[in-house]
Amino acid sequence: MSVKIMSVIPRSPADKAGIKPGDVLISINDNEINDVLDYQFYADEEKLEIKLLRRTVKVKKKEYDDLGLEFETYLMDKKQHCRNNCIFCFINQMPKGMRDTLYFKDDDSRLSFLQGNYITMTNLSDNDVDRIIKMKLPMNISVHTTNPELRAQMTCNPNAGKCLQYLYRMAGAGIELNTQIVLVPEFNDGKELERTLTDLCNLFPAVKSIAIVPVGLTKFRDNLPKLKGFDKKSATEALKTIELFGDMMYEKYHTRVVYPSDEFFLLAEKPMPDYEYYEEFDQFENGVGMCASLQKEFIDALADKREYNETDSNKRRLSIATGVLASPLLKSLAGMMENDFPDTKINVYTIKNDFFGETVTVAGLITAGDIINQLMPFKEELGDRLLITENMLKSGCDIFLDDKTISDVENALSVKVVTVPTDGYAFLDAILGE
Question: Do the Cβ atoms of 26 and 2 come closer than 8 Å?
Answer without folding.
Answer: yes
